[in-house]
């Protein structure tokens, strides 16, 4: 985890918890562009999903083969919502 990553992740989670989805997506996209980690990918997909864009989250998660349980669960939630 880089020095940049931790405070930005905290800001994204705070924005999500306060329903500021546009801010959360903006920050998560910038974080993922810089870091490109599985954790940043999950955070960005979560932002897309919570902001009512499950298709964007689905496409993002399908394009990257991540095997963590939380990523697979989010992918499954997207599939259920899109079915």
Automatic annotation (TrEMBL):
Keywords: Cell cycle, Cell division. The keyword Cell division applies. It comes from the Eukaryota. Pfam families: ANAPC3. One of its GO terms (biological process) is cell division. InterPro entries: TPR-like_helical_dom_sf. This is Cell division cycle protein 27 homolog.
């Amino acid at each position: 985890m880089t020095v940049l990553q931790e405070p930005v992740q905290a800001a994204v989670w705070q924005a999500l918890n306060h329903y500021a989805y546009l801010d959360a997506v903006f920050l998560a996209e910038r974080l993922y562009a810089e870091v490109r980690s599985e954790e940043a990918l999950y955070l960005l997909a979560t932002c897309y999903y919570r902001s009512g864009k499950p298709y964007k989250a689905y496409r993002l998660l399908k394009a990257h083969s991540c095997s963590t349980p939380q990523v697979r669960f989010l992918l499954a939630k997207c599939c259920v919502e899109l079915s």
